[in-house]
Amino acid sequence: MNTKDKKLAYTIYLYLGALFITSLVVSNLIFQKFFYWKPFGDFQIFGASLFEVSVGILPYPITFLITDLISEIYGKKRANQIVTAGIFASFFSMSIILVANLAPAIPKSPVDNATFSQVFALSPIAVLASMIAYLLAQYVDIAIYHFWKRLTQGRHLWLRNNFSTFLSQFIDTFTVVLLLCLFKVLPWSLFYGLVISGFIFKILIAFLDTPLLYFFVYILRRRFNLAIGQEIDLEA
After folding, report:
1. Which of 6, 47, 15, 2 is nearest to 216 (CA)?
2. What is the C-alpha to C-alpha distance for residues 33 and 124, in angstroms, rounded to an integer?
3. Burial bucket for residue 7 (CB in 10 Å: 0-12, 13-18, 19+)
4. Taking Cα atoms as reference points, which of 62, 3, 2 lies closest to residue 27?
5. Please, are residues 116 and 96 in contact by the beta-carbon 8 Å criterion?
6. Which of 51, 127, 222, 227 could pair with 37 in a Cys bridge, judged by C-beta atoms 3.0 to 4.6 Å apart?
């Protein structure tokens, strides 16, 4: 790969990382608003309404699409680096919000202390649960993705994309709900319902990323003349 192509590949990698980190941080900032999407009417599972979910779940599947794309084109090491950077960015953004919450608002401030605290002063336990679940899910997603990639010798992109995402999404949903119940943020009566409804919703969204992954992988492979299973080594 010539110098020009390598610079372009690195730039694309940086932009993918920026999209990943933005999606992750935003999902943690907006998660306190819930909505109810009911394509099948009012249906409940173990006391929890199906598809009664946080808006924070909307940008979250983007992170899995991006890690799969980076895994496919740039390799496992680069995907793990983005995940680690995302963890750092999340905790850093939360620390800034906590400091901002301590600063008293002036009388003329459009947003007063109570409103700011209610919207942005997130529960430390909820944020910690989300981060632990995210960490487990993302690393599992990358590990399973590359397991299937080696097993299929770079073929059957849909297989590793879906198998890795489905399992990692279940781990994420199960872990975050379990921790929130253990720390008594949520009642145990909602545990099974929230796990099942959250997982089903994430899976429905995850199905949409397979054609997108095929499209972006095709574009990048064609641009950089990559064979099936071949990865770009940014350090070479």
Report:
1. 15
2. 17
3. exposed
4. 62
5. no
6. 51
